[in-house]
Amino acid sequence: MIKVTIDDIEIEVEPGTTILNAARKVGGEIVPPAMCYYSKLPGTGGKCRTCLVEVTAGSAANPTPMPKLVPSCSTNCMDGMVVKNSTSERVFENRGGIVEFLLINHPLDCPVCDQAGECHLQDLAYEHGAQKTRYEEERRTFEPIEIGENIKLHMNRCILCYRCVHVANQLTEDRVHGVLYRGEHSEISTYIENALDTDFIGNVIDVCPVGALTDRTARFKSRVWFLKPMEAECSCSKCSGKAVLWMFGDEIYRVTTRKDQYDEVESIDDKTAWICDECRFEKKDKSNWNIIGPREVDRHSVISQGKYETKIGQHHKKIE
Amino acid sequence: MSGKKLLLENIEIPGIETFEIYRKSGGYASVEKALKTMSPDAVVEEVKKSGLRGRGGAGFSTGLKWSFLAKPEGVPRYLVCNADESEPGTFKDRYLMEKIPHLLIEGMITASYALGANQSFIYIRGEYMWILRILQQAIAEAHQHGFLGKNILGSGYDLELVVAPGGGAYICGEETALLESLEGKRGNPRMKPPFPAVKGLWGCPTVVNNVETIAAVVPIVNHGGEHYASIGIGKSTGTKLISACGNLVRPGVYEIEMGLSVEEFIYGDNYCRGIANGKKLKACVPGGSSVPILPHYLVCKTEAGQDRLMTYESLADGGFKSGSMLGSGGFIVFDEDQCVVRNTWNFARFYAHESCGQCSPCREGTGWMEKVLNRLEHGHGNLRDIDLLADINKKIEGNTICPLGDAAAWPVAAAIRHFRDEFEWHVKEPQGAQKRNYGMIEEKSTTLA
Amino acid sequence: MKTHTDTSNKYSEKFEFSPESLAKVNDLIAQYPEGKQKSAILAILHLVQEENGWLTINAMDQVAVILGIKPIEVYEVVTFYTMFHIEPVGKHVWEVCRTGPCMLVGSDKIIEHIEKRLDIKVGETSADGLFTLKTVECLGACGYGPMFQCKGKNYEHLTTEKVDELIEQFRNEAK
Predict the structure, then answer these.
(1) Are C74 and C124 in contact (CB under 8 A)?
(2) Over the stretch B165-180, which tens digit does the pLDDT of each residue have?
(3) Complex ipTM > 0.90
(4) Which residues sit opposite A13 in a β-bridge?
(5) Which residue of C has its CA nearest to A174?
(6) Residue in A155, A175, A181 closest to C70 by CB
(7) Cα gap C103→C106, rounded to integer Å
(8) Do C104 and C151 belong to one domain?
């Protein structure tokens, strides 16, 4: 085991643990935000740069500080490493810059976006975003499209985290969508008209950190904070059948995977409990499910908890 | 005297592009010497002694880079030549490969032997397709004469060389993007660590070196590392190919001894012969578009008043405040009629066009800077835009996966640092800015009188 | 709109590898270690483009089959690299460098002149289908600008007169 200090808290972790995962072991404010890293999808991370942290001592053997901020999701802990996240002015400033970059081309359509209320970019914008935009140019725009029966792609909202590409690569046999073009013209697309319709492809909706990929069967039906999440299971030959039903009265509006506090799909019996498209899109009747009881959901979103005052306040206090 | 030449010495010999003439002129001697009389480690040792530094732009010690190469049992190692020359202002590798292709092939064989690679690659930008064919021809000739293939010169050493084309992407000059591209993927740079020396091409230990670096191995092995190190000044040893362009009387590729004065290079009879059309020097980007621009008063002299020399150290003298970098040796000269704002916008457009789009600061930041500079150049800017640019810069620099973010940020930051009054003039006199250039800066002052 | 390109005739235009180019494709693949055939993709795409002028969807799909990869992997690669044309182009594509060093020696004027002479804008194809004008970033001819590249050949040290001559020359050759 090696020792690492994050925001003055010392922890012991296995060698090979990333800074981000070490921080997650402690939880709370010291955990850097992650828009592209997804622990259940190997190969993700390093791209969005929101998880950048300051390393003030590289290791016990070589305690010199690292000159650049490092992506905590893809930097391994070293014995004696000292990391600053919520206690670093530099991190706060640069993270603000990154959030600004993610927002300059992001539409201000939260009021009509199904992701609002459980959107990571929304949270970040409240925590780190400026109140006024400095971007005077035209935003990059795309037409929303249907990629398959059940999934809607709003490319305008995409932050190019690549998570959905990894889902298609790792959970399905046939990947038909990917990242096309390059630079600021990069886009998620199938290039030619094509449908995402493999058995587990619906999980792209759950891993999408923003409202770029949404569930067409639940589209515009309700805001998430009006729905009651219920833990449920069904016997399914394809998947674990363990899901969360988002209900309004007796009606099932939406079916999702069960997610943890970092909004990642939970592991159940050491297996990531992805759900299949049949469970997600077709089982919308109560009789399909055995409803266990209300699901504790980490309502991290600023909208659902109104914690926008306190979050900013807390952060500034930490720095002082 | 035009100084000692190690790479281009024989370039004027008619027919030097053929194996026959190249061999007659002493070519492939380094392969014979290395394979017959030296161990691979001895070759690495000579390269270390030579003080050779990577000629692609970063200037990292080649001997050190080679010694980092992991050598696990039973795993192939690769040498990859970076011939993706795409840095604006840089066209030296093209000149070398076009005129004296066997020098690169010879260097590849000797270097591959030193590294224990049995298959090596030359990744050449797709826009150099005719040079790719020249190289393939040279490889075929070397094969015929027993310098490639199985059991080269009876030494027991085998080597195959493959030339692979790019498809039009500046980013593939970044070594890990190059490896991705060579694997047939999008040129997205990889996260480091692991470095290519440990996990490179197809996950195997790999060294990636620039064309000129590999060519320089030939004279190093022929004459010894110490001889090479005796040329040049301090840690800038040997010779360097400089590709000079812009408003010069005689642009082109020159091999210079490290330590030549910048003044001699711009105005000397053996080099660029001064500014074209009798005009005055306004500014200079001495190491390819990514390095900071220098105003005329900092080109030939450092801030401390010393002569500026063509070395890694002297060009960087003064740091980013009053210095620049030798970079890839793309020497771009601006005459008094050139507009710094327009050029800065042009470069910003280049970087926005070439960003791979993988990480957010570069993808969004380069595009944003391009748009703001476009407005400024065309008379639609505000004074606050200048500070905005400086701030976007700070948020990109150091926060990206690969150095393209820095490369995009530095030229903008330097242009604002040295030519702020010209940017302000574009805002205050937009119509004038459309009609004429701001001109020379007479004083060092950075505020508009 | 780039996304979800429709599948009208233009995009389903068929491509057929000639036996000679198929042999070349196999040679290209054989250069790489077994299982690493994907490395040949850029060289193969260049070959297809030389033969067909541009990359049809059908051609890209065939490349995917030959390399044993998914079509989307080919699309991803093709759209990343700027040398590949994914729309039909004229017989000759003039790619004029617009980057700094060429701009310093007058590439803007050359681009404007070509636009005027061919009566097209950058990105367009002339009415006779002979020329497509594109602007590109640095082609490594900084000391020899202004310049353009066409079919792997550089035309350097351009002047407006030289451009006129070249247009004539290309037109005469097409007759």
Answers:
(1) no
(2) 999 999 999 999 999 9
(3) yes
(4) A2
(5) C70
(6) A175
(7) 5
(8) yes
